[in-house]
Every structure is written in C-alpha cells, then in structure tokens.
From TrEMBL:
The keyword ATP-binding applies. It comes from Camponotus floridanus (Florida carpenter ant). The lineage of its organism: Eukaryota, Metazoa, Ecdysozoa, Arthropoda, Hexapoda. One of its GO terms (molecular function) is microtubule motor activity. The keyword ATP-binding applies. This is Kinesin-like protein KIF13A. Keywords: ATP-binding, Nucleotide-binding. Residues 5-62 form the Kinesin motor domain. Belongs to the TRAFAC class myosin-kinesin ATPase superfamily. Kinesin family. GO terms for biological process: microtubule-based movement.
C-alpha cells in the first residue's frame, strides 16, 4: 500500500457563451507544476496537485 500512487487528470475547457454570460468562475488554477482546486462557492483552496502539465490549443485561448 505504501507504494500505491494515484494519478489524477484534470482537463479545463474554455467557458461556453452561456457560462460567460452567467459570470461563471473557474475552480481550477494552474501555476507552474501545481494545480489548485477551489471550492466553487467560497473559492477557498481545497486541494493541491503536483506535477501539472499545462497544454493549450491557441484556437481555444480567449
């Protein structure tokens, strides 16, 4: 059990028109090699994931 590892993949897509109109906030923050998940209501940081790989498609950058 001590050698078990869990890998988590998080994919963030651009907001659609409706989400933008509603003022939706993204709950995933990617900084360097870290991904931070925030509580959707309070925006408190609830979890940090290491080894972030940021990959973006220029077509989807707003």
């Amino acid at each position: 059990m001590a050698t078990d590892k869990i890998k988590v993949a998080v994919r963030v897509r651009p907001f659609n028109r409706r989400e933008l109109e509603l003022g939706t906030q993204c709950v995933v923050e990617m900084t360097g090699q870290q991904t931070i998940l925030q509580h959707p209501i309070t925006m408190d940081k609830i979890d940090r994931l290491a080894h972030t790989r940021i990959q973006s498609n220029p077509k989807h950058v707003l």
